[in-house]
Amino acid sequence: MSYQAEGSGGDGLDLAGGTADGERVNQGAEVTANRCQADGCLADLSGLKRYFRRYHVCETHIRAQVVLISGRPVRFCDQCSTFHALSFFDGTRRWEAGRGGE
């Protein structure tokens, strides 16, 4: 299973398979089934809720302020359920700047 990464500017990973402008670039990052996709994390997701398995991320990394995926610092957005570069966020919030959330 390959995940897509944003091609212009390298601004994180888009688990939905594309970018806001429709560009699709395959980075070749392979994720083992039922394992967290964070670099170095071997957490088994098989016993977790479907939400965590769907996005291939453990409970620790879905709530983390910074996660390394394919060597890139990203954060999980609670609003769109996608990893984005840290520059997409306002401070320590877990939703994108300019998209609301409160």
TrEMBL record:
InterPro entries: SBP-like (IPR044817), SBP_dom (IPR004333), SBP_sf (IPR036893). The lineage of its organism: Eukaryota, Viridiplantae, Chlorophyta, core chlorophytes, Chlorophyceae. One of its GO terms (molecular function) is DNA binding. The keyword Flavoprotein does not apply. PANTHER family: SQUAMOSA PROMOTER-BINDING-LIKE PROTEIN 4, SQUAMOSA PROMOTER-BINDING-LIKE PROTEIN 8. It comes from the Eukaryota. It holds the Pfam family SBP. Residues 1-21 are annotated as: Disordered. It comes from Gonium pectorale (Green alga). One of its GO terms (cellular component) is nucleus. Keywords: Metal-binding, Zinc, Zinc-finger. Residues 33-102 form the SBP-type domain. This is SBP-type domain-containing protein. The keyword Zinc applies.
